[in-house]
Amino acid sequence: MIVGVGIDVVDINRFAESLERTPGLAERVFTPAERELPLASQAARFAAKEALAKALGAPGNLRWHDAEVVRADSGQPLLEVRGTVAARAAELGVRRWHLSLSHDAGIASAVVIAEG
């Protein structure tokens, strides 16, 4: 059963400007491993975190670092959740995540499906 679906798009240039304009933004939003990635990959991960929040009903208490996009050995992007995100997912009965990322033509996007 689908518990929630979220989608988000990010203009990569505007995202880069936000990172430059707001000191500490990358540290607040991304885990250390995510901060090592190229800009387009960071923008896609930001979109994934926003889409994840939407799939969970967009509660205001989720912490950015409680969701991390990692890669399986196959290259497939996966969500690792903990803390506030894991707690909200448990409340809703989420047992599995589906994640798709893309970045092309200056836009990064993500779709998250929460399955119960």
Automatic annotation (TrEMBL):
Pfam families: ACPS (PF01648). It comes from the Bacteria. Its EC number is 2.7.8.7. Keywords: Cytoplasm, Fatty acid biosynthesis, Fatty acid metabolism, Lipid biosynthesis, Lipid metabolism, Magnesium, Metal-binding, Transferase. Its main location: cytoplasm. GO terms for biological process: fatty acid biosynthetic process. Transfers the 4'-phosphopantetheine moiety from coenzyme A to a Ser of acyl-carrier-protein. It catalyses: apo-[ACP] + CoA = holo-[ACP] + adenosine 3',5'-bisphosphate + H(+). Residues 4-97 form the 4'-phosphopantetheinyl transferase domain. Mg(2+) binds at residues 8, 50. Gene3D superfamilies: 4'-phosphopantetheinyl transferase domain (3.90.470.20). It comes from Carbonactinospora thermoautotrophica. NCBIfam families: acpS, pantethn_trn, PRK00070.3-2. One of its GO terms (molecular function) is magnesium ion binding. Its cofactor is Mg(2+). Belongs to the P-Pant transferase superfamily. AcpS family. GO terms for cellular component: cytoplasm. This is Holo-[acyl-carrier-protein] synthase. The gene is acpS. It is found in: Cytoplasm.
